[in-house]
Design a protein that fits this description.
Layout lengths: L11 H37 L5 H30 L9 H34 L1 H7 L2 H31 L6 H7 L3
Length: 183
């Protein structure tokens, strides 16, 4: 990493650092802003749309809401961290870490909602008669809630670890247990 990228050029590490900043600022910021605007417009459109089935509309609105919130967290945390060399841009490091974890929760949740949309579309197209029974608002709401809870449960160990670490409490690891055991 300490070699020159090209003859009489910068070192690889410096070159990669500047490339990361340039790409994330030139691509990341506009994508976040445009993504928030288009997701907001999608929410407005699906609230007005009456031709799309209710369950599909509900899933698409939840997907757009998730995108809006994820991109907001990205603008607040990930973009400034790029410019600050991963120093927390907010004063509370725990808050910064928790928001980072919540962004991951939203990303997991978004992926599960996309899967739910594809299953719902499969049922509607391939099993149109059964879709009248299976694809109802009550079941869709329950599935969304279950995926939301599951996404949080998956990240719960990391959230607990960050809270314990920020409080200054000792974290029990295998190395600590091995030191405590007599030989």
């Amino acid at each position: 990493m300490m070699q020159e990228a090209w003859l009489e050029g910068p070192k690889y590490k410096v070159f990669l650092h500047y490339n990361r900043i340039i790409f994330l600022s030139l691509l990341g910021l506009p994508v976040c802003v445009v993504g928030r605007v288009t997701s907001g417009l999608s929410i407005c459109m699906f609230l007005q749309d009456k031709t799309t089935p209710r369950t599909t509309r509900m899933l698409l609105i939840v997907l757009s809401l998730t995108d809006v919130h994820y991109l907001l967290f990205s603008l607040i945390i990930f973009q400034p961290m790029t410019f600050c060399d991963y120093d927390p841009p907010l004063r509370g490091p725990l808050l910064t870490r928790i928001i980072g974890v919540l962004a991951n929760v939203l990303e997991y949740f978004r992926n599960w909602v996309v899967e739910l949309i594809s299953v719902e579309r499969f049922v509607v197209i391939c099993l149109p008669i059964r879709s009248k029974v299976w694809c109802n608002e009550r079941l869709t709401t329950r599935m969304i809630a279950a995926y939301f809870v599951f996404s949080h449960l998956v990240q719960l160990p990391i959230i607990c670890y960050l809270v314990i670490e920020d409080a200054g409490l000792p974290v029990i690891s295998c190395a600590v247990i091995e030191k405590a055991m007599p030989a």
